[in-house]
Amino acid sequence: xxxxxxxxxxxxxxxxxxxxxxxxxxxxxxxxxxxxxxxxxxxxxxxxxxxxxxxxxxxxxxxxxxxxxxxxxxxxxxxxxxxxxxxxxxxxxxxxxxxxxxxxxxxxxxxxxxxxxxxxxxxxxxxxxxxxxxxxxxxxxxxxxxxxxxxxxxxxxxxxxxxxxxxxxxxxxxxxxxxxxxxxxxxxxxxxxxxxxxxxxxxxxxxxxxxxxxxxxxxxxxxxxxxxxxxxxxxxxxxxxxxxxxxxxxxxxxxxxxxxxxxxxxxxxxxxxxxxxxxxxxxxxxxxxxxxxxxxxxxxxxxxxxxxxxxxxxxxxxxxxxxxxxxxxxxxxxxxxxxx
Length: 340
Hints:
With 340 residues, this protein is α/β, with parallel strands linked by helices. The protein folds into two domains: 3-127, Rossmann fold (3-Layer(aba) Sandwich), CATH 3.40.50.2300; 152-333, Alpha-Beta Plaits (2-Layer Sandwich). It contains twelve helices and nine strands. The strands form two sheets. It has a five-stranded parallel beta sheet, with helices on both faces. A four-stranded antiparallel beta sheet has the order 7-8-6-9, with helices on both faces. Strand 4 (80-84), helix 4 (89-97) and strand 5 (102-105) form a beta-alpha-beta unit. Helix 10 packs across helix 11 (252-262). It is globular.
């Protein structure tokens, strides 16, 4: 795996080179600052598969560098691991908001870092597999593309939505919350209750856009809480926020549902796409919860089982009297003629 490590401390770079070679990753390049790193990335004949970035660097810090790397089309999904002595929640939040996949604090343990890089390698394998699948689809006819299906439990790829982290990055973020910030955090899950109906009457492309639109509605209502969230499949989103700064209202699910309604979403056949949103109970990590554990995510999802199901969750789409307008993502459906 081709790795680029960026740090303004030459000793750390030498340590990283030795550490990576010791755990089986000898193909590592180094850069002493962000500007040099951007030049190395630009000149690379083969793309890098993982980045190790220090946060505190002169002129352009590691968080800004992370953001710039993420803006490059070929590196939108490449694992980026932050290596830094900064363990305060503010730095962690900024790093993940900029697109970091993982975060390791200095002084780092070689075996732990090796484990994180191995996780990045597995993520790369999944990215390559998915990319190959899409290249195969692109070579097929439009009919086959329309018939592509996404399973309900698939982790749909959501892009360009503030506060959204892919599931692995979200797990890493929750696990990284230090003891103080861990106990000041709360999690809440949301489920699109009629997701089976939406899935049934959507093409794969429509379903991806719908999941993204729902994510935008969550983002709009989560912004004030300085939180992050992810999509866990089956119409379930999990949010984490700092309850000390701002508590989420009991009306959170209704607020998200109202935001979705204001989008005036429609199926490709013109029928209204309505989403019914249900929230699970708020989960607060207890005094004896183990920092670094992601079990609270499972607990937040499992909490949905004990919440009554709202009415209308199995209702079929109804014909719109006013088709309204599609969200900014739906115009991409031009040329797909399938209705319901």
